[in-house]
Amino acid sequence: MKSEEFATATKADEARVDDTLMLSKENDAVANSSLFTLHSSLPKSERIVSKKLIDQLFTSDQNHSLAAFPLRAVYLEAPTDTLPAQKARILISVSKRHFKHAVDRNRVKRQLREAYRLNRPLLTDHIPDGCQVNLAFIWLSDSHAPSSVVASRMKRLLKRIAGQISDSHPFTPNP
How crowded is residue 166: how many other Cβ atoms within 10 Å of its Cβ? Predict the structure, then answer.
């Protein structure tokens, strides 16, 4: 009797292992697809970490600023001789003046990163070859906002920036 129960349990365990292996193979296939890797992450190469670039972004006479409350976007177009690895690079800033607790600042930064990551093609599709855009997103409000509001304002800003870039480069085809 015990051997029959053991055999049944073993077959059920094997089926679970097979299902798990099949799911992991499907997940690997999805993770290796170019669409998934293009839109699924925000690598460090897309972030502005250089103090020199940050200073240039905020002090240049060529920078532009747009607001869609509770966000402000400051951007600078930078011509490049070679094709840049990333067409757009971002910086996210949430002031301690608006949120005293780090946990609150980190939540807002997470919302901004996710909103940008999901809507990044609205901007990058309009950046011509040989050009790179450095962006800073600054939080202006003293209170939290729902992710849907953050996403809609991010979309609005990215579309406006893409329109201004397209206007300043009239001879480049837009997809």
Answer: 15
